Amino acid sequence: xxxxxxxxxxxxxxxxxxxxxxxxxxxxxxxxxxxxxxxxxxxxxxxxxxxxxxxxxxxxxxxxxxxxxxxxxxxxxxxxxxxxxxxxxxxxxxxxxxxxxxxxxxxxxxxxxxxxxxxxxxxxxxxxxxxxxxxxxxxxxxxxxxxxxxxxxxxxxxxxxxxxxxxxxxxxxxxxxxxxxxxxxxxxxxxxxxxxxxxxxxxxxxxxxxxxxxxxxxxxxxxxxxxxxxxxxxxxxxxxxxxxxxxxxxxxxxxxxxxxxxxxxxxxxxxxxxxxxxxxxxxxxxxxxxxxxxxxxxxxxxxxxxxxxxxxxxxxxxxxxxxxxxxxxxxxxxxxxxxxxxxxxxxxxxxxxxxxxxxxxxxxxxxxxxxxxxxxxxxxxxxxxxxxxxxxxxxxxxxxxxxxxxxxxxxxxxxxxxxxxxxxxxxxxxxxxxxxxxxxxxxxxxxxxxxxxxxxxxxxxxxxxxxxxxxxxxxxxxxxxxxxxxx
Length: 487
Ligand code: ADP
Ligand code: GLC
Fold this sequence. Notes:
The chain is built from 17 helices and 20 strands. By secondary structure, it is α/β, with parallel strands linked by helices. The strands form 4 sheets. The protein has a 9-stranded mixed sheet, with helices on both faces. It has a 6-stranded parallel sheet with strand order 17-16-15-18-19-20, with helices on both faces. Strands 10-12-11 form a 3-stranded antiparallel sheet. Alpha-D-glucopyranose is lined by residues 17-19, 22, 166-167, 216, 249, 381-385, 404.
């Protein structure tokens, strides 16, 4: 099958979060199963290209006020996958991918509408796939366009679509006059299509028009069908429940394992963990804590700073957590509110919490390797990758039992010696503090702690199994497209 992925970021070319990890790794796993895969990404200023060549010189994208002309570049074949980049400097040659700390770019609707349309046009030249697999609101217009403006286009007659929700919290909401600006028909502006509380909702469009919908863990696929987690779209999803599946993200263990990691001070394995102590020393030094007692448990955080990630709970408990024997190292950037919160906590408890406000991939790897525990108290978490990376590094996850965090971490039971981490359910500071204290207590028994570490290290979340599940969904979507039922 020829599958074309369209997304707004992908490793190793561009990344702000886990979506990029998925878009970088899933295609290779699909190729390994014998499929042909093309990946379409925007060409940002940040996109790391080495020998890019233009393969399509000019594609015309109509907007209400003017025509825009973009091109397509390629880097050729990367591990069997063809990567293509939609090039339109006025939209993508900018300081950041989606916006600055001051907010999202005001023309994001146009930027990603141009991207989506350009992907469709580019495939007409570079090869129309059997199926488009689109990700998040930035490529959500592809399924919409295919069933509206492109519905009569013979090139796409039997092309199926699968749409993956990586995060219901980001929907692509724009004012109604966005529709005519993008030359989209007004009849999309109804409650059953893209209208959402008087705005145009790109994500909703995909949830209505895609043949099949997936999200990135089983638990999250159920959660988003409830009002608590659905961000107002739970009803739309319940209507489509028969076509919604949860497929857990895999991990690229070539990038994320202590045996191979090129960013860490010493490599180690479940059989020989001695390198992990060196990684801890190196990490403490990187955070200016070289004098700290290496025997004290070290807890790590690597994250986008966003309300989703549950950091308000840390602020609630920090004065009491500071009384415990532990140190917390934090790497993150994003929402100013949380950057300031962590800076304040660092000032208040300089012996207990060390912060780097940055986006730093090498340091993210060092934290995975050098910490004893990894903290993710998320309010919601579609999948979450860092807790899965942590398992492989013998860094024990402490998580809130939501979405993918709940699906990937089993609670530690010292009596049976089973389990991989610590979980709490209620979203409040007390529950978080109690769970961290349990973990700190368990850490004191180093013999059973080793069992706990090795339990996690032996878990396998490689892509192969999840890629097979995607293929099953792709096949269902194609079957549906080739024998459409009247709706
Ligand atoms: P999300 O996609 O919601 O941000 P995930 O856990 O799925 O959460 O993925 C986050 C990815 O981004 C991981 O690969 C993580 O290492 C990386 N990451 C997040 N913040 C930073 C940062 N400040 N520096 C380096 N890497 C980061
Ligand atoms: C989103 C989610 C995260 C998930 C990632 C990749 O950004 O917040 O939980 O792991 O996408 O699917």
